[in-house]
Amino acid sequence: MKKTIALLTGGTTGEWVVSVKSAATIAQNLDPQKYEVYKIMLSENGWFYEPADSVKIEIDKNDFSLTLNGRKIKFDGVFIAIHGSPGEDGKLQGYFDMIGLPYTTCNALTSAITMNKGYTKAIVNGIKHLHVAKSVQIFKNGDYSLDDIKKQLKLPYFVKPNNGGSSIGMSKVKHADDLEEALTKAFKEDNQILIEEFVEGREFSVGVFRAKGKVTVLPATEVIPANEFFDFEAKYTPGATEEITPGRMTEEEKNRVEEVVAAVYEQLNCNGVVRIDYFLEHQTGNFYFIEINTIPGQTATSFIPQQVAAMGMQLKDFYTQIIEETI
């Protein structure tokens, strides 16, 4: 008997465009023998199913059901492919928990916490072999001093919206005079900002998922951006970044990384597939945690599909494992 799955895409942030591309990849690779899939678009204007004839059919939010040609369709579970709010910050997860519908991502609490880079770093700090860059967290209308920040942190530093994704609103600050402009840019995206000391090292991104009861670490991707850092353009423009999968690591580094990222997954009580970004510091080889993404991109240029292929697995089998474990 086929399971009826809602593939939820869109969102209410600038990342909706990435979500639509991710959902297209997922839809192409969900096993039609096992799943009947309905793609649901979420936007500020509502939640809709759009069949081929383009007539929008609204979702009943009382039980997340769909009435199609007089037939009421209820779902066995939801594959959430929304980056940013409300798919990645716990809002949708809380709603689905309340109506008793399973989904493919981390739970509401983990999703909410991991959207905040500062809070996440505080939770993972203390894991063996994991380091975090020195940072300062500030609030839009808070009492902070630019001079104090400059005294506390060594240049260069990264300025990041604390709850953002896809590197939107992020800047690398090399000169202290440029800090104020970087804060203004970041505050357009969020009311909280993280200012972090720059770690000089090789950058990697690695997928981690739970299937058949065990945590599996995918082959890591080494990221060598042509731009100054791995910004939105570098992430989503084909050819703007050199990506090596599997990334170049010694056997010791690979084993240590797998141990650390599996511990991060467990410590944050993750579910489904997540992506963890990290540096290996040039001088020391130390693992520096950058951030975790609990709904990583699944577009044609995204890391997770690359890493699944490098593991020798078909995306169809990968998504089946995610659905079977979570739904």
Automatic annotation (TrEMBL):
Q: In terms of domain of life, where is this protein from?
A: Bacteria
Pinpoint the ATP-grasp domain residues: 122-324
List its EC numbers: 6.3.2.4
- Associated pathway: Cell wall biogenesis; peptidoglycan biosynthesis
Name of the top EC class for this enzyme: ligase
User: Is Cytoplasm included in the keywords of this UniProt record?
Assistant: yes
One Pfam assignment = Dala_Dala_lig_N
Cofactor field: Mn(2+); Mg(2+)
Which subcellular locations apply to this protein? Cytoplasm
- Reaction(s) catalyzed by this protein? 2 D-alanine + ATP = D-alanyl-D-alanine + ADP + phosphate + H(+)
- Cite the entry's keywords alphabetically: ATP-binding, Cell shape, Cell wall biogenesis/degradation, Cytoplasm, Ligase, Nucleotide-binding, Peptidoglycan synthesis
Q: Which InterPro entries match?
A: ATP-grasp (IPR011761), ATP_grasp_subdomain_1 (IPR013815), D-Ala_lig_Van_CS (IPR000291), D_ala_D_ala (IPR005905), Dala_Dala_lig_C (IPR011095), Dala_Dala_lig_N (IPR011127), PreATP-grasp_dom_sf (IPR016185)
* Keyword Cell wall biogenesis/degradation annotated: yes
Q: Name one GO molecular function term.
A: D-alanine-D-alanine ligase activity
- Similarity remark: Belongs to the D-alanine--D-alanine ligase family.
What this protein is reported to do is described as: Cell wall formation.
> Cross-referenced HAMAP family, in alphabetical order?
Dala_Dala_lig
What this protein is called in its record is D-alanine--D-alanine ligase
Q: What is the lineage of its organism?
A: Bacteria, Pseudomonadati, Bacteroidota, Sphingobacteriia, Sphingobacteriales
